[in-house]
Design a protein that fits this description.
15 strands, 5-stranded mixed sheet, 3 domains, elongated, Rossmann fold, Trna Endonuclease, Chain: A, domain 1, Arc Repressor Mutant, subunit A
Length: about 500
Amino acid sequence: MSKKNIAGRDLEMQKLQRTLDSGKPEFIAVYGRRRVGKTFLVREFFNDKICFEIVGIHNATTQEHLINFSNSLTEAMDINLPVQTPKSWQDAFTLLKTFLRNKKTKGKKVVFFDELPWLNTPRSGFLKHLENFWNSFGSKQNDLVLIVCGSAASWMIQHIMDSKGGLHNRITGHIRLLPFTLYEIKNYLRMQKIRNLDHYQILLLYMALGGIPYYWSFVQEGLSAAQVIDELIFSKGAELKNEYDHLLGSLFNHSEHHERVLKSLAGKKKGLNRSELLNAIKLSSGGTASNIINELEISGFIESYIPFGKKASDVLYRLSDEFTLFHLFWISPLGKRQAGNSYWLKKQSGPKFSAWSGYCFESICLKHIEQIKYHMRIDKIESTNSPWEYRSTGNSVHEGAQIDMLIDRQDMVINLCELKFCQTEFIISSAYAQELRRKIEVFKNQTQTKKSIFLTLVTTFGLKGNTHSASLNAVGVNMEALFEEIIL
């Protein structure tokens, strides 16, 4: 094993290690969005313990997959003459059983099916023969670890983890591989010997790339965040220039519906409720709409939340994938036009940059709320987190108000958090101080809370103290909090 090459993923590696240490057969499902590092993790962790591996091919026929299987088995057997292509998946799994029975190894044998959903072509019978392989053979082999992996997260959950068929309750463990946190990205860059980027530069890059390791693998030493973005996305022949075009199509059938959802949410910082979202994409409520929304949420493109004081039926959906938001804000409007030299370097100011950076920073703060609480030393206090919004009506004495994030604590305190991206220390002006007082007043009046309100401003470079911050008892938290290591 070559665990030293794996950045982060400590909990995931502990799970995988337990499969090797157990004295029983193991069936592990690994899922997560495209490029998040699933294949790398499995290959690097198990390394030479993988005795058979097959990778599904996107949009391939059953015959092409069976040829791929015979080639993979030939490689696993380390023979010169190719294994005859099986006529069906039933024959293929029979060959795999024979191979595993004859394979002599020390410790566990690892069998790895990568991009499993692509192997399950219509009318191929793949899934039922995988079920039979495990139920009739694999589950009796105490030295076997079967790893199945897929980027189509909803398919993996429906057909593997929550299977109602032959795999019902058969898996022994699962791993949902999430994008890296900022702390993990920082360590990943160190492993790649990228040392010139400070926290602000890493944050700027994260706002465009998110926590997807594959995207960060192209970062070069000596370039600023803006230069990296120009190189990876906007320059001629850029590695990630067409990434978005392949992203949804490789994960979802009829991905045009999924893209409409993402486009509808891209301009809505606070998100949309279900009816607003369905109206925006011109889709009636029903199973199809529910599946689309569910697939996008499971795959990490959108997230749902219940605003403070609201019911489960008031759930809102917001776009949460940084790379997708960056594409829809900056790349999609270009159409077929070329960005030109240093395109992104020239976009570092103006109202559009302010709108995008504010949206991104807020989203990243919400994803790193546990790091923020740890930094504030309130992580041991039981709490819930959610934004809050009040929309005034004709009879209301108060204007509408919204709060980026509330931390509702069991010690009778609510942290009212404002999340602000800026390129210097944040200064509370007289006008903004007045607006903050109004927000607090509206919140207290509308919620009738008896808890104390602590005002917290989470900003990039912290809060510059002045008379307004002092009068509001405002506490500043800077971006260093987002890079905290959380040990579970």
